[in-house]
Give the backbone structure.
Amino acid sequence: EAFGQERFALGAIALEKVTLTWGKKQHDLRLLLGGEVKRLVLPLKTLRRQPPVLDFTVRATGERVSLELGLPTGFGHDDNVTLEHLLAQVADLQEDMSGLRDSRTAGKLLKQVEQALEQVQAHPLAQGEIAQAVIEQLRNTAGRLRQLQRNYDYRRASTHRKTAWQAAHSMRDPYRGYAPPSSGDYDFAHSYARHATNPKYREDLRVDPDALSLAPMECWVRWRAAPIGNSSREVLLVMHHPRDRFLQQEIKKALGKKVRVYQYPMRNDQIDRLLLGERLGTK
């Protein structure tokens, strides 16, 4: 899946050399794939300053574009912004796990994780999918740190540092986040992939029976895919792994048609419901 996502990314780049310049500071956003959403929370003390400038190169044409972004007309409060700010702090905390070296640092990091967990749980949007995924991730992190605080083990600590780094990567760059299916971070990585994707469809989804008949049901279950549209030339799919290019090629070969895939990663239970013939409301 990881290699399949990388192969997909090579052909899906929409914008390159993306930077956001605000005053003397420049934020390097690197590149954006089609449909990708990136969120950046920046501190602002006054509205009386030059607005930020977004620069990028359009991959298809090579054109360099510079956009001046408008600032708010007044200060206010937005739960989505405060949540994103909290999530950025959690990502920083996961990266701080590189300093885990003994029982003492495990205890110190544990206190920080428990504090972050309390903050996310107390947030007004704590019941949303992404907050719940982060809460579960922090609980797992706290559990591992408690073990290391009681009985520090070099191998377990090394594994925890790698797991924390992977979690931070999924939060920083969720469109390319990955975790092995056997790991406890698998659902976390996929939740963040959905968080970083703009769902372009708004209508209710339903399996197309003609497209479904092109392959045995056991194949659709194994692919974690559901066909929602069909024409003489292509089949439209929703998938749990919409950016796995190798899997898409396998499906294309099996169906004998081109496949077009919505890039929003569906949950496994949503795929199951569609394959059972249920209508799925996306909003």
Notes: The longest strand covers residues 13-22. The two ends are 28 Å apart (CA to CA). Strands lie at 13-22, 25-33, 53-58, 64-68, 225-230, 234-239, 258-261.
